Amino acid sequence: MISLEQAREKVLDRAKPLAPEEVELLFSWRRVLAADIYAGHNVPPVDNSAMDGYAVRSVDLKDAGPDTPVRLKVVGEVAAGSAYTAVLGAGEAVSIMTGSPIPKGADAIVPVEYTNQAENRVSLYLRPHPGDHIRQAGEDLKQGNLILQKGQTIAAAQLGILASLGISRVKVVKRPRIAILATGSELQALGASAQENHIYNSNSYTLTAQALDAGGEPLNLGIAADDIAELEQILAKTQDCQILITSGGVSMGKYDLMQEVLKGLGMELVFWKVAIKPGKPILFGRWDEKLVFGLPGNPVASMVTFEEFIRPTIYKMLGKKQILPDYIEAISTEDIKKKLGRKHLLRVSLTLKEGRFYATTTGQQGSGMLSSMSGADGLMIIPEDSAGINAGEKVTVQLLNKSVVGTR
Amino acid sequence: MISLEQAREKVLDRAKPLAPEEVELLFSWRRVLAADIYAGHNVPPVDNSAMDGYAVRSVDLKDAGPDTPVRLKVVGEVAAGSAYTAVLGAGEAVSIMTGSPIPKGADAIVPVEYTNQAENRVSLYLRPHPGDHIRQAGEDLKQGNLILQKGQTIAAAQLGILASLGISRVKVVKRPRIAILATGSELQALGASAQENHIYNSNSYTLTAQALDAGGEPLNLGIAADDIAELEQILAKTQDCQILITSGGVSMGKYDLMQEVLKGLGMELVFWKVAIKPGKPILFGRWDEKLVFGLPGNPVASMVTFEEFIRPTIYKMLGKKQILPDYIEAISTEDIKKKLGRKHLLRVSLTLKEGRFYATTTGQQGSGMLSSMSGADGLMIIPEDSAGINAGEKVTVQLLNKSVVGTR
After folding, report:
1. ipTM
2. Domain with residues A4-17+175-317, CATH architecture
3. In B60-200, which residue ranges form alpha helices assigned H by DSSP?
4. Which CATH number fits domain B23-42+141-173: 3.30.750.24, 1.10.287.1080, 3.90.105.10, 3.20.20.150?
5. Which of A142, B213, B297, B392 is the most exposed place for a label (fewest CB within 10 A)?
6. Does B159 touch chain A (CB under 8 A)?
7. In this complex, is the C-beta atom of B115 within 8 Å of any C-beta atom belonging to chain A?
8. Which residue of B98, B328, B354, B369 is the best one to mutate when testing the A interface, meaning the one whose CB has the most A CBs within 10 A?
């Protein structure tokens, strides 16, 4: 059986970045930039005031102080959106608002709190240094500089940066379309009353949420029974998709038809079975340009194999900079025994105490135990050749999608 | 001036949890549960097989082993979605698929890998223990137990749990409607070519993304000039909102009209100015049932005050369990000087080395510097009475909305 790392390499080798598309700025939120962004102009565009106050020549105020105000003549007033176009002369001041351009000749701003205006004269009680309270042109973003990089995800601050550059349409990477099919004659759809010997389909929901969360565009194909003709018919609907995920039907039983069906449709099998627990029976192949993941039907195995194989695939298709999960070092709070041969991925919660992360398994670890996934911050990784670990030993923990670890 | 903590308490005292609404299961993703969820039935509903193989009476196989197979009579086959209804007798086995109900009389499953069937006889090369590979009814979710709690956010695993309980419609807390208005005659909208003495409106975009991210429903009111009649007219459109955010117009200048306008419309002012940097001129009040936040116009001050005051407000309205941000201890990598009087919130990136977080400021900290926000993992907090810190000193860092800290 191949290892997790070998299998993931085979998957990622076959995942190609998708084409760009242009969207309205607001719709670029949480998308991935498809091109580097350079500043087309300075931000701020011109030297401007950081405070409400008076633009002055600092040389005029070299004797000013709390008890020794200096009086200047107010020769103009600059409201937001306008400018004082003359050159400030000796003994002159201009009343100015935050964000307004600095008049020529002025080299400092005295905040309004340190002034007192009467008619067209202002008394200033502060000796400013040249440059005080002046925001320089290009101080935040300099014209011509690389500001945001291809592969970056656009969060609130990046959205604001794009807006401040006047960019109203953004090139982002297309989202992979991801078909999701739950298989198994024991599955029933929500809404109907419970049938005997059936269980509700939950994997379609977890996989849809995981696909959305990773930045994909899910296409829910519902439930198919263990029936070749039915499976083939449904799978024919996936032509526009870059990824096909099935859950169930990949083990060794008589009704595990997925491999046969997919091969019959023309899928080239790349691997079947990986030395991990949960998730061993996962199959992966390529069907035309589509990447096909046959996930085990157990709810936790389905979620975990999505995180190990499909999230990195989506990230690669999106052109993200970081494709693989984050790993941290933690200390196990428990003794854990395992058989040799497979890499175990145990759901754990993390706590941070005195600079160390401590990992504790979240309840029973059976691959049907969805409840254990709900409280998990990460997956504790116990290697293939390990027979287990003792409480207090160091372990590696894979973080599950950006949870803030150890801080609650 | 009141402190951040005093101000936040005044805000949160006035924020009330919103009413519930019922949504389709899939649309409950990332929403907050409005009621506790109890298991209406066991998951799994009945004892069932964890493997493809044979249901047996373990007592029949007490002599079975790799070299000493025991042969049993195959009296039935249970496909997914069906059941074997007779009682398993001595010397009998039933072929069974993963997920299928365990026949009465059987107490273990032998996986298919350890068997060899010919006609209606199967040789079994393994001695099972009672209970082997049997998933017990209610093993994951026990009927009657509290499964998910009011105030929890529904992520992929929770969605799967709800589905496995057959819940197709979920009571979630209504999302607060949040009106967002950028003010200032110097602002121009995206799309038009750059006007002299103007800057592009970026705060509407960052605030919209922050509101969405926190779980609110933004209503973008665009830009208003510094004009009382125009402001009043636009603010009249916010009747259906629970929160009104304005940016700009709250400082001390002549054109800082927000306070006057809002009071004129009937807002009760709760506070104006908080001892923080950036963000000092923030104003907060109540206008009928609406909470009103007048944020400073500087892009970083606007983002930071959102995080300090508005995100917790939204979380409280949503009934979330954790309302306040997460804080961690870190070590400053730099000397930082400050004036006494205000609490400074510095944008920092975090790295984790040998169990310690190290905090480094992300470039210049001017309140116009949106670029410094884009790389920030958190806000380093330097208290009011501190004149600064030295490199190597411990500091508190507020995490910015669930970034995975220190792991890249």
Report:
1. 0.93
2. 3-Layer(aba) Sandwich (3.40)
3. 156-164
4. 3.90.105.10
5. B392
6. yes
7. no
8. B98
Quick one: A20-43+139-173 is in which CATH superfamily? Molybdopterin biosynthesis moea protein, domain 2 (3.90.105.10)
Cα atoms in the Cβ-side hemisphere of radius 13 Å centred on A335: 1
* CATH code reported for the domain at A327-399: 2.40.340.10
Q: Which residue has the tokens 């038809």?
A: A257
Each residue's pLDDT expressed in tens, for chain B with a length of 408 residues: 999 999 999 999 999 999 999 999 999 999 999 999 999 999 999 999 988 899 999 999 999 999 999 999 999 999 888 899 999 999 999 999 888 899 999 999 999 999 999 999 999 999 999 999 999 999 989 999 999 999 999 999 999 999 999 999 999 999 999 999 999 988 999 988 888 889 999 999 999 999 999 999 999 999 998 889 999 999 999 999 999 999 998 776 666 788 999 999 999 999 999 999 999 999 999 999 999 999 999 999 999 999 999 999 999 999 999 899 988 899 999 999 999 999 999 999 988 887 788 999 997 776 668 888 888 989 999 999 999 999 999 999 999 865 444 333
**d(CA A286, nearest CA chain B) in Å:** 26
Distances (CA, A) of A403 to A360, B184, B347: 16, 38, 20
Across the interface, do A79 and B399 touch by the CB < 8 Å criterion? no
At the second CATH level, the architecture of B48-135 is Beta Complex (2.170)
Name which of B272, B243, B275, B319 is nearest B33 in CA terms. B319
Neighbours of A126 (CB within 10 A): 20
A143 in Cβ contact with A42 (< 8 Å): yes
**Residue B396 vs residues A37, A199, A260, A264, B383: alpha-carbon distances, Å:** 33, 48, 57, 60, 10
Size of interface A-B (CB pairs under 8 A): 292
**Domain boundary assignment for chain A:** 4-17+175-317, 20-43+139-173, 48-135, 327-399
B-chain CB neighbours of A256 within 8 Å are 52
